[in-house]
UniProtKB/TrEMBL annotation:
This is Anthranilate phosphoribosyltransferase. Binds 2 magnesium ions per monomer. Mg(2+) 1 binds at residues 79, 213. It is an enzyme of class 2 (transferase). GO terms for cellular component: cytosol. Anthranilate 2 binds at residue 153. Keywords: Amino-acid biosynthesis, Aromatic amino acid biosynthesis, Glycosyltransferase, Magnesium, Metal-binding, Transferase, Tryptophan biosynthesis. Signal peptide: none annotated. GO terms for molecular function: anthranilate phosphoribosyltransferase activity; magnesium ion binding. Coiled coil: none annotated. The lineage of its organism: Bacteria, Pseudomonadati, Pseudomonadota, Alphaproteobacteria, Sphingomonadales.
Length: 321
């Protein structure tokens, strides 16, 4: 039996409020995962999470660029770099993120290795978002209600519905998003769930290899909300970029990924730069900043090559010390 949106919101509200026993929570999560969650159930959980999260105010037009994770590719931090590049293009980015769960270094780990004080960045998010055009919203600081289910999720050791919901519960309440999902089969589910929420514009993307971002190696699949003429597939050449093998994006620990991101912001060419340009173009389309992929790549490249993205990162680090 599937749950309606309102029933899912009520059930998971009880779960997050500590009104369910551990065994009942575990059984519910397993049952949903085994049969496959519905869009209404995902949207209901997101509504329950949003009702209990620590919100911040955001300027008009703010977006998020975030993936579900779990793709197993252990690649460099593309969405983190995209956040910096897109913010340097003048689009406010409320970057929702966390430490690594299945990879060696999540966005939070890499930003910390770059010198960003994560706790202060989260505390000052409501200030830096309008002032600098970027904020990092540390998931564990903004979603205290999830502490109730954390140990149970860890003990289960498997994907649950909560893995799907994080990107949709941004504490800044953004209504424009670039969301990467770990497999193309999840795109329709995500699109339908986002349509049940207050989404203004979105691109839901997945690389054909099972990548939670647009792939620089080949074809990616997409669904859009509130955008016209986007299509359902894209390859690097459609954006004027050369393809690269996924191995060229292989990441490492936080220090390794941070060093690579620094080199990217200094203008180093290669697979990482082109992956970031492709995904930045997608985010700029979602923001309504550009009209096509080629314009998006050009604007993103300019933000890097003029030192705007690097300058933004350095200023952000200094501001939140």
């Amino acid at each position: 039996m599937t749950l309606s949106l309102s029933d899912a919101e009520a059930l998971f509200g009880r779960m997050l409020d500590g009104e369910m026993e551990d065994g009942e929570i575990a059984a519910t999560l397993i049952e949903l995962a085994d049969r496959g969650e519905t869009a209404a159930e995902v949207a209901g959980v997101v509504r329950a999470m949003r009702a209990r999260m620590q919100r911040i105010a955001a300027p008009a037009g703010a977006i998020d660029v975030c993936g579900t994770g779990g793709d197993g590719q252990h690649s460099l931090n593309v969405s983190t770099a995209v956040a910096l590049v897109v913010a340097a293009c003048g689009v406010p980015v409320a970057k929702h993120g966390n430490r690594a769960a299945s990879s060696k270094a999540g966005g939070a780990d890499t930003l910390e290795a770059l010198g960003l004080n994560l706790a202060r960045a989260s505390e000052l998010a409501e200030q830096t978002l309008p002032d600098l055009g970027i904020a990092f919203l540390f998931a564990q600081a903004h979603h205290p209600a999830l502490a109730r289910v954390g140990p149970i999720r860890k003990a289960l050791g498997r994907r649950t519905i909560f893995n799907l919901c994080g990107p949709l519960a941004n504490p800044a309440g953004v209504t424009r998003q670039l969301v990467g999902v770990a497999h193309p089969s999840l795109i329709a589910l995500y699109r339908d769930a986002m349509q049940l929420l207050d989404t203004e514009a979105a691109l839901i993307v997945s690389g054909a290899e099972g990548l939670d971002e647009l792939s620089i190696a080949g074809t990616s699949y997409m669904a859009s909300i509130g955008l016209s003429g986007i299509g359902t597939e894209i390859s690097p050449d459609n954006a004027g970029l050369a393809p690269h093998p996924l191995d060229a994006l292989r990441g490492g620990d936080a220090a390794y990924n941070a060093a690579a991101l620094r080199q990217l912001l200094l203008g180093q060419p290669g697979a990482y730069r082109d992956a970031v340009l492709l995904n930045s173009a997608a985010a700029l389309l979602v923001a309504g900043e550009v009209e096509d992929w080629l314009e998006g790549v050009e604007e993103a490249a300019e933000a890097i090559d003029k030192g705007l993205a690097k300058g933004l990162l350095d200023c952000w680090i200094d501001t939140v010390q």
